[in-house]
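User: I'm writing a short methods note and want a consistent example. For Glycoside hydrolase family 65 protein, I'll paste the sequence; you return only the structure tokens, no commentary, since I'll be parsing the reply automatically.
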Amino acid sequence: MKKILLLVVFISSSIITAQNDGWHINTKDNSDYTGIAIANGRIGMLTSSKPLQIQHVVLNNVYDVDPNLKVSQILHGMNFGNLDMYIDGEKITEDNISNWQQTMDMKNAAFTTEFNYQDKAKVSCTVYALRNLQYTGYIDISIEATKEIDVKVTGKILTPKEYQTPKNTFQILKDLETTMPILQSVANSPFGKHLVSTSGTFIWHKINSSREDQRPELTHTIISNYENTLSFDYKIKKNENLDFAWTGAQCTTKNFSDPKSESERMVIFNLLNAKEVLLAQHKALWNELWQGDIIIEGDLQSQQDVRLALYHLYAFGRGDSNLSIAPMGLSLQTPYNGHIFWDTELWMFPPLLVLNQDIARSLVNYRSDRLEPAKKRAINYGYQGAMFPWESDDTGEEATPPFALTGPFEHHITADIGIAFWNYFRVIEDKNWLVEKGYPLMKEVADFWVSRVTPNDDGSYSINNVVGANEFAPNVNDNAFTNGAAITALAFATKAAEEVGIEPNPKWKEVSEKIKILKLKDGTTKEHENYKGEIIKQADVNLLSFPLNIVSNKESILKDLKYYEPKLSKEGPAMGKSIFSVLYARQGDVSNAYRLFKESYVPNQQAPFGALSEVATSNFSYFATGAGGMLQSVLFGFGGLEFTDNGIIQKNPILPKEWKSLTIKGVGKDKKTFRIDK
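Assistant:
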């Protein structure tokens, strides 16, 4: 254990160069680089260490179907975020610049790269995924000439080579005296499901006081079918600046009947609005998001880590979308193809429900919008009610690759969704929503579990042949978390029926009270029927203590904690230990709670910003599920918050010795503030 703690301290101190506040993460070292996502809930752009570059663009809820894998994949879109810059004829690269540094501004969702080129120029480039214009990105650039220089800048639309029938154009649209230059690329997605259109243009800010009306001449060049470019040349005098932006908009037939025209309109909207107006709207929307915030005094590193986690949940979601959040959010297409799992309902949803009910509503609405496919799936497998897919995409049908046993057998997802729905109602107290969307889904979930259980001779019920949260043990009987989640979903459905004035099915209560929870000889909760002490992939049994509250007395909680913590695989996902942290905090053991809080994410941080990977041995980031877990450690462990039928309450908060205070702002629909001091 001492070796693990030493490793945690080393990793934490070596990854991040912090600015002296809790809102910015700064680095001057790009020797080991994992990017983070600049996103607005619709598009995500993954940052790069290379000057004026981003790695790729991810399009939320836009799926293509790979006939080889026979499953859908979220689209990597056309990359409109890369520019080439030449100064006095030499191309800017990572090899010929100095004083490189990058800063993540979490408060304003802005990512800035700065560098010097010889003794001739200082360059600053800030990337935004505009929150107010959700299909657009905005890259703001300033070149300060320390000597007179000739500058050439090329904006590009790079179409992935897997795309079909690309078409590249440039046109100057005119309306009266207004001219609007538009670079555009249109292509079919790799497997032909969608037409994708991306438009881009330069936006000139005030060039300088004496040459305000001058605009550089634009040159269009098609480098290849997959690279469409627009360039300008400009001479900057010594001690003068050139300030401009490059903006792109990307639309698809998933969201628009005419994505080509709509992407043009969006770019024109950005072109003909002042930078100050666009960015003020973007920042105002992020300021609203940050009304739900976590403030840690006395531990700057923890503050930054927690803020980065919360930033990513906000960046990957939208309150106006009715969309969900994939495990990697909008940072990557792989792993998991951008599908939606239990990661949303069990790990990301609770922190968002505490701090941002708008995004939380989109997450539950995503599921209610896909209730009908879930009902058909139940029928297809011989059950009643609704059987939600383990991996979900835009269709609501099962999207798990056929070779994976999780698709046919990991059924706890259906209970997880029902539990999330009741918690949403507990917090928001919207009876109309419960009548129209909440209860109809919860009823189908309950009916599924009544049809899914197997009666035993002693009057109890078992749930047989499942893959549980511990996926190392496939096709087992009476998995602890599956059974506990079903018990809870059935009990919540009964409450929901009573709330809307409907007589609940008495079978729900009967089955809920008689589903087996197995025990070892010493009283420890048993992982499944045939469990014999094997290593487990992630928290399973301990979820019965939190969040399910089925194992609720202190002696049993501690017995389960001490038994299963050593059983957690070192190759398991990041969020597992966060549950142990919450439980230790709730038992008053702040030392173990803080240890496990740090162990739940620090080994998974990637240089230089602390982006989370799913496991410590990979660098696929950003793992939004892990972010949800570590935030739950803070909110429900140290913060003592709890979902109840009376809303969000606080019980027995506890503060790590490393922290001076913890403030949780914007809690629940009344936006309450909870503060814990030493």
